[in-house]
Design a protein that fits this description.
The chain is an alpha/beta fold. The protein has eleven helices and 14 strands. It has a domain of 221 residues: Rossmann fold, CATH 3.40.50. The strands form four sheets. Strands 3-2-1-4-5-6-11 form a seven-stranded parallel beta sheet, sandwiched between helices. A three-stranded mixed beta sheet has the order 12-9-14. It has a two-stranded parallel ribbon with strand order 7-10.
């Protein structure tokens, strides 16, 4: 099997992508410092894959450790997920985000170049667009991230483009701007499980549905949207994982620098998500309206045409499937606490 290094591979999107890589004939090798992931993910991921997926507990800012991993594993490409990702935290502690997301990426790129590995799929974000001037968002839309997290993503995108300009015969780059991941593996044994309070809506809603928390906070209900709550393009994490594999294959075939949206092409509001989860669980989900969060925008959804044209990929799973899979994971995790610690 073809070895591929997956930074942040024990995290939510990285772990699901490892399973997609195995299905596609690759051998994922995980680099993760476990700052926002649990070690138990590796065992469950390996069981679902039917083969051991190796973990190197390494911080991407540790260049010497990265060099050892490249020497030991000899990967042919890198899927780069590792990074801090909470918008609010990035506003409070921008230094952490620039040190981890930007400096860490530079260390990774240096290790790649030294090892002769020039193919990278980068986990970027729709936050690089900032406040949209029109929807849906295409890859040519104006860029203007409104928080330090988004700025770190845009900085790494620009670094990757500059690296390719300097060595176009060596670097093959995909910059994937994806929207709002949701859902879980269909087995129910792998899903979003942050170490701290979730920053994303769906795991928050799941915990309220499970009775672990008393209510949902809707951050702002006075946006210029159909019901006043924020609207986002929710994309199933398994669709997203398949998209990374599709992008990798496109790089292997064509090279170049590719900038691609990964989304469904439609938006759902926060209140729609709450209502849909009530249908999936049969539970009433209490919520209260709080103030808008700094750095949030009213609405955002993708035009995924470029990704479909280049790779044939498109999202297949709707909001109902995302929430049903997320709820299945929440119930499994609740019933198997020793397996998720």
């Amino acid at each position: 099997m073809i070895p591929v290094l997956v930074t942040g591979g024990a995290g939510y999107i990285g772990s699901h992508t490892c399973l997609s890589l195995v299905e596609a004939g690759y051998r994922p090798v995980v680099v993760d410092n476990l700052c926002n992931a649990k070690r138990s993910v590796m065992g469950r991921m390996s069981a679902l894959a039917g083969r051991e997926i190796r973990l190197h507990e390494v911080d991407i800012r540790d260049r010497r450790a990265l060099d050892r991993v490249f020497a030991d594993e000899q990967p042919v490409a890198v899927l780069h997920f590792a990074g801090l990702k909470a918008v609010g935290e990035s506003i409070a502690r921008p230094d952490l985000y620039y040190a981890n997301n930007v400096h860490g990426s530079l260390q990774l790129l240096g290790a790649m170049e030294a090892a002769g590995v020039g193919t990278i799929v980068f986990s970027s974000s729709a936050t690089v667009y900032g406040e949209p001037s029109e929807l849906p968002l295409t890859e040519s839309a104006r860029l203007g991230p409104t928080n330090p997290y988004g700025r770190t993503k845009l900085m790494v995108e620009e670094i990757l483009a500059d690296m390719h300009t300097a060595r176009p015969d060596f670097w093959r780059v995909a910059r994937l701007r994806y929207f709002n991941p949701a859902g879980a593996h269909t087995s129910g044994q792998l899903g979003e499980d942050p170490n701290d309070t979730p920053n994303n809506l769906v795991p928050y809603v799941c915990r309220v549905a499970a009775g672990l928390w008393p209510e949902i906070t809707v951050f702002g209900a006075d946006y210029p949207t159909q019901d006043g709550s924020g609207v986002r393009d929710f994309v199933h994490v398994c669709d997203l994982a398949d998209g990374h594999v599709a992008a990798l294959r496109a790089l292997e075939r064509d090279g170049g620098v590719r900038t691609l949206n990964l989304g469904t092409g439609r938006g759902n509001s926060v209140l729609e998500v709450i209502r849909q989860m009530e249908q999936e669980t049969g539970a009433r989900l209490p919520y209260r309206v709080g103030p808008r969060r700094s750095g949030d925008i009213a609405a955002c959804w993708a035009d995924p045409t470029a990704m479909r044209t280049l790779t044939g990929w498109q999202a297949h799973r709707g909001l109902d499937v995302m929430l049903r899979d997320a709820w299945r994971w929440q119930c499994w995790a609740r019933d198997n606490p020793t397996l998720t610690s």
